[in-house]
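User: I've been going back and forth on whether these two constructs are worth ordering. Before I decide, could you fold them both?

Assistant: Sure. I'll take them in the order you sent them. The first construct and its structure tokens:
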Amino acid sequence: MTDDARRRWMRRACTAALAGAGGSRGATPRAATIPYPAVVRGVPLSFPRDHGAHDAWRTEWWYLTGWLEGADKARRGEPAGVQITFFRARTQHDPADPSRFAPVQLLFAHAALALPERGMLTHAQRAAREGFGLARASRADTDIAIGEWSLGRDGDDVYRARIVDASLEIELSFRAHAPPLLQGDAGFSRKGPRESQASYYYSRPQLRARGAIGAAGRRLAVEGLAWLDHEWSSEILDPSALGWDWVGLNLDDGSALTAFRIRTRDGATLWTYARRAEFEAPGSNAAGRPGWHAAERDERTVHFEPLRHWTSPRTGVRYPVAMRLSIGARNFRLEPLFDDQELDTRPTTGVVYWEGAVRVHERGAVVGRGYLELTGYEGPVIF
């Protein structure tokens, strides 16, 4: 298949997914003929099953980001950022259709390297319908693939990602030292004023990353810290919402900070959430169980304040790439590794967004690193 033919096919696949699964930027959701299940408060998450795919729900993603450095400590060089995201979308095609060609489940993937020497993202994307050996998403555990792109989890709680593309290569392992961090109310994460505007959501912060990355004919052994999010839902955003600002931050004290705001079309904040969690080893808490425990949680006094904007020379979209994040009495300053970390994924998921590696400053010192995601600045995101 030629590059042009592949792009045309991806656009057709994306259109089919968004028309049947409820939409992305600029799409108009149509009345569902096959119901999607709701996200319900109080449903306990169960692992390893909930590491896998949830076919009945409309939208799902596994999202990995990290900061990497050269594994040779004598030749560290500049840091690099990595982002890998796999998406699953259930269309409105009748799942009872016996045809193997029925596009019931569609898979998409984005991958990017933030290399300071290049000054802009090196990225690639994929799309395929499930089946025919082209793409898969296991229901039992994390095991998702599109061709040579894959993300899986083994019995030692190590995630392994492999991305092979003409523009970049990524082969990394991500080792977890703690159980999943359940976001919101035990994994029930509100995204708006209505109870139905929610997702099932957990994170894997402070993952130890190791492996190799490559771009422009150069391959580098790397290690660092990463973050994984896994979410699934049938309805997330309120009709008045435009998009969101989100951060997942690995702090140097070993804790993890999640924060987001949902923005309305007039620029106001519709919904916010923040949580800093610390890992407690067995016997160090009253329950006697290891896991993440909330050190701070706030859903009312969370503020994202733009400090500096950057305008993309390709799309003309203006993003607030440097932010002040205020949570109660604490103030963090988020500064990008570099400004041009825009992703144009219109050939697959139909969205232009900014997904960038950022340093976290507090009281003049760097206290952590992570990723900032900015959506809805190019146009409404509908999920």
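The second construct, handled the same way:
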Amino acid sequence: MTLQAHNLTVAIGGKTLCHDLDISIRPGECWGILGQNGAGKSTLLRTLAGLHPPQTGAVSWQAVALQNYTRRDLARHRAVLLQNEGGEFWGSVLDYVLLGRFPHRTAWFRYSAQDHAIAQQALTHMELTELAARPLNTLSGGERQRAAIAQAWAQQAQCYLLDEPLQHLDLRHQAQTMQMFTQLREQGCAVLMVLHDLFWAQRCCDHVLLQFADGQIMQGPASELLTRTHLQALYQCSLREVTGEGERSFVASV
């Protein structure tokens, strides 16, 4: 159940974002993608999800190239949370979360009782039960983000690719979200997420990929790469290391 990229070169708008990348995201691992704005983190994640074509190389799931799966078959295995979705959804929050069950649906025109039960569990996880009947487009930005996370959870995938899952979330819901994906990792799922908060990367990721603005990549164990030297080079700013209660993180010096 491994997501792999081999000899991957990714480009957009004439800019090369990474080249000759080999990476394996295995069950029970949590990867963080870190880098400056515009470095190409979202495009790399979309490429690994099969939503953006690489310049060279290939991405595979269970040793089968992504293009050899139907969209529905692939969606049974990997869930994708994007920063922005195209179009507007006019249904309720429950209708929106139920879309996560679409790849598993056995009847053409309805969801099963199990699908509804899983969607209700997802709403409970993200504290959205009381909002289930509300139109999605009436929610705040943070509430909509929680609904998107609930939809991804309802998909019951083996691999989760998450582009800035913490955007718009307050501190409590950030902690709740990271705890949920940590539990999925502990259950044997593979998780890869684009993050900007070094605290959460330090606390929750066992591997990181550092994506530099010039297309260079560093990847490996978080314990080896999340150092002040590497992160100052990545973000091109001075950092202070902060420790407390057995944990450490980095903040920009101002």
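Notes on the second construct follow. The chain has a mean pLDDT of 94. The chain is about 35% helix and 30% strand.
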